[in-house]
Amino acid sequence: MDTTAGRGPVRVGERALAPDLARGFMLLGIVLANTPLLLYGDDSGAPPAPADVVAQSVIMTLIDRKAYPMFAFLFGYGMVQLYQRQLDAGSPAVGARRLLQRRNLCLIGFGLVHAALLWDGDILGSYGLLGLIVVAVFLGRRDRTLLRAAAVLAVGHVVVLAAAVVVDLVSDGEYGITPAIPYVTDYSGTEQTSYPHSVLARSTDWARGLLVYGLTPLVIAAVVLLGCWAARHRILERPLDHLPLLRRAAVAGLAVGWAGGAGYALAHFQVIQVPYAYAWLYEATQATGALGGLGYVAVFALVAARYQLRERIPGPVAVAVIALGQRSLSGYLAQSVINAPVFAAWGFGIGAWMTSAPTALFAVGVWLITVLLAEVLRQRTVRGPAETLLRRLAYRSPSRTEVREPR
């Protein structure tokens, strides 16, 4: 039995700028990617309005399949940060591991409740499951092991994708997804007019998809491992020490990520003809999107480096976004609290008639609301409610709600 007390939750003043800045903007990408999935009313087959084409194209090119890899990288980064803080405070390794696993189990529980009540596109459960595996198998391994495993997973993703292409070509597209599939996917429960029925539908789909979305995207697991490796070298805490790496990652990652997204958008609107495009091009964007997500993380690290180099204090806008990043779990859940009852048929039902362009504007508005709420909490030196609950459950002891801000 462990007798050495580990340290409690990290204080806000101890946090690095780059991860929280990235998390804050990551939530903008997530809400822009998720909100269109709540649209369900247009099945007429009529061509979209020009504004909707622009909105969809921008989201496909710049955001789709990039926000979640950002989350994956920062998730792995945060796990290693927490583990190292526990060790530095004198906690035994086994105790630090148990803390991480409790947090991961709590994330799965949060995901179940989130999906059942509001949104079955939840990612918390999948990342909690992935976190359990990463801690059990990879935590404490050598850098070389992490990088090799990440490379194997990334190559495995490409191999699976290539196999799918071959099957599609050999079968003459019999197993592919035709270009007739709409951009907007119907999520269970969205069209349900009965809220209890929608809860059942969402819960069932979440449970069924937990293993699929938690384990099968091999490239996402690779990104988590890269985040673990980066945290060991404190790349985001000390961006000035890693400028060449960050610059290369930003340029190459965004170039590949945007190119993949643009190709998918062009194929979606049939500007270019790609054989069985939806059978493999969409999955290919998961790989290119992962690189794009890493590119975005590198960009925010470079922004943090600029602040450090010039010894500047972030302005009020950046401070508010950072405040949201420090409360990213609450910010993520708040998106569903606002969006689900507004768009779903069991709520106000605007998803039946809204289109892509106004939905994107609505999503930006939701993000701005969460930024403002996070700033209010920052000024009151209060954690986000979800973060407070997670800490109380994971640390098994009451955690102070009030936190100290840096002076």
TrEMBL record:
Keywords: Membrane, Transmembrane, Transmembrane helix. The keyword Membrane applies. InterPro entries: Bact_Transport_Assoc, DUF418. Residues 230-396 form the DUF418 domain. Pfam families: DUF418. The keyword Transmembrane applies. The chain crosses the membrane at residues 21-40, 67-83, 104-119, 125-140, 147-167, 210-229, 249-267, 287-305, 350-374. It comes from the Bacteria. PANTHER family: INNER MEMBRANE PROTEIN. This is Putative membrane protein YeiB.
